[in-house]
Design goal:
Layout (H helix, E strand, L loop, with lengths): L1 E9 L6 H9 L15 E7 L5 H15 L5 E8 L5
Antiparallel strand pairs: 1-2, 1-3
Length: 85
């Protein structure tokens, strides 16, 4: 079995209140130097067999049609995770 990861992020022009709240909190806990935080979503899809180019294409289609809202989000990554032994 293979696992595919899909990362979805808000489009740059979309406000990200959670990211802003995290960015504001970082200096309060002693972590400085971060100028911006954007929070996204991650999905992991498990498939029987290998993560072939065809399977990755299907995962990208699922990401674009179901896992993301194309009005406010971009699919920024669709890739196979390394196999665990």
């Amino acid at each position: 079995m293979a696992r595919i990861v899909v990362d979805v992020m808000p489009k740059p022009e979309i406000l990200d209140p959670q990211g802003k709240a995290i960015a504001n909190e970082l200096p309060r806990i002693g972590l400085s130097g971060f100028t911006e935080v954007r929070q996204g979503r991650r999905f992991e899809l498990t498939v029987d067999g290998e993560a072939t180019e065809q399977v990755l294409a299907q995962a990208r289609e699922a990401a674009e049609k179901l896992l993301s809202n194309p009005v406010i989000e971009d699919v920024v990554n669709v890739s196979a995770l390394p196999e665990e032994h």
